[in-house]
Request: fold
Amino acid sequence: MSAPFWYRLGADSRGGVWPAWAQELAAQRLPEDRGVGDTVEHVIGPVGTPAFLRWYRGQFGLRPCPKCPAKWNSRYPYGKPESVSTP
Reply:
């Protein structure tokens, strides 16, 4: 499945490449999601739920910080929809 044209993956807010987990979740974003943190909360579950804790521990091997989604929105933001010009 190819990524939609309207969001940019590649560089994060620090100029680094998005990790695979962030890219996979970004493909499931909703139009109102500001970044990967929002997508995590509706795909995996809100921070503190058993589903989120299992996913986070499996992904990172750590206990999550309650501010993870906000940090991820800041670090892995979605770009604004690009205008598509037609000839």
Notes: The radius of gyration is 14 Å. Helices lie at 20-26, 36-43, 50-60, 68-75. Residues 20-75 form one domain. The longest helix spans residues 50-60.
